[in-house]
């Protein structure tokens, strides 16, 4: 896969994940549990997506904030080593780097213990510095968890991108709080492709069915709605074509952390390559399925060759 010189910019959450598998139960008191593996990885809807894009060969820069601590150094250096331009990744000395502890269950699911930290310190001036002149796709990841830029600053960013002819993509993480709608809804008319998970899509829309959710998001102004459905694949909807299903790949699931971010990366890589929506979704599904085969957001997906191999050899599940 070859790509034009124009780049992708990811904006939003940058998180250091500490993952351990497998955790069947938390020992009481000061008890000890022996695990198979513990890893520290780059995660977050902006950071993990950027790393995956770099591995797919797409020129990518990222914008956000980390703390002036060891985890911040880890995120910046690891992303740079992967080929991500981290010039826009600010250091906020007043806050710790955002981090999550993830005890992974045997079915691949996991609870999350999270520190918001530096992600709360991303500021409108960080967005103002983005030069749209060479950007093909702008990806905003983590809305609802970005208090410094949720709402008007994000709307201004997406509007500026749209005015510059940049394709806009977005993923959000609803908290259930009163501010979620003020953060998300004003953005949607400026979003070309929205990537919510099925759970988030339904809960935010207050919908009982996918059909109700699709009506809600298209009515709110989204151009193309791509709902990720885990092992069930994706549902793709536009005003001309609703709820077109694509199956995921059947893989041995180790951990589902970062699968949605990998899907976003694969889909965006397709857009940058000039693929249509169906082909972009296929690339996204392959990327998400690969990441599920290992521990952490950076597992399973190492290059475009991995995607090609799974697509050629993989077994598809049901939609």
UniProtKB/TrEMBL annotation:
GO terms for molecular function: kinase activity. Keywords: Kinase, Transferase. Residues 7-300 form the Carbohydrate kinase PfkB domain. Pfam families: PfkB. InterPro entries: PfkB_dom (IPR011611), Ribokinase-like (IPR029056). GO terms for cellular component: cytosol. It comes from the Bacteria. PANTHER family: RIBOKINASE, SUGAR KINASE. This is Sugar/nucleoside kinase (Ribokinase family). It comes from Microbacterium proteolyticum. The lineage of its organism: Bacteria, Bacillati, Actinomycetota, Actinomycetes, Micrococcales.
């Amino acid at each position: 896969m070859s790509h034009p010189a124009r780049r992708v910019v990811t904006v939003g959450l940058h998180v250091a994940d500490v993952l351990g598998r497998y955790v069947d139960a938390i020992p009481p008191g000061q008890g000890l549990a022996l695990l198979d593996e513990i890893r520290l990885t780059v995660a977050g809807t902006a950071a993990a997506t950027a790393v995956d894009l770099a591995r797919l060969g797409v020129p990518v820069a990222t914008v956000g904030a980390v703390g002036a601590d060891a985890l911040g150094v880890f995120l910046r250096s690891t992303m740079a080593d992967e080929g991500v331009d981290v010039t826009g990744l600010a250091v906020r000395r007043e806050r710790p780097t955002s981090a999550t502890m993830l005890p992974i269950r045997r079915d691949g699911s996991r609870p999350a213990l999270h520190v918001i930290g530096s992600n709360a310190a991303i500021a409108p001036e960080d967005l103002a510095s983005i030069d749209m002149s060479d950007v093909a796709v702008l990806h905003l990841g983590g809305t609802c968890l970005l208090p410094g830029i949720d709402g008007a600053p994000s709307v201004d960013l997406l509007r500026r991108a749209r005015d510059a002819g940049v394709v806009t993509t977005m993923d959000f993480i609803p908290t259930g709080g009163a501010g979620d709608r003020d953060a998300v809804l004003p953005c949607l008319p400026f979003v070309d492709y929205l990537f919510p998970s099925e759970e988030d899509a339904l809960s935010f829309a207050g919908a009982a069915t996918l059909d109700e959710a699709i009506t809600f998001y298209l009515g709110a102004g989204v151009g193309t709605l791509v709902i990720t459905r885990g092992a069930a694949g994706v549902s793709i909807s536009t005003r001309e074509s609703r709820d077109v299903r694509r199956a995921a790949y059947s893989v041995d699931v180790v951990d589902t952390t970062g699968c949605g971010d990998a899907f976003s990366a694969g889909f965006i890589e397709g857009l940058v390559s000039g693929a249509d929506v169906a082909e972009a979704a296929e690339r996204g599904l392959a990327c998400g399925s690969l990441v599920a085969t290992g521990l952490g957001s950076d597992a399973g997906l190492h290059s475009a060759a991995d995607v090609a191999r799974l697509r050629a050899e993989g077994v598809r599940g049901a939609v």
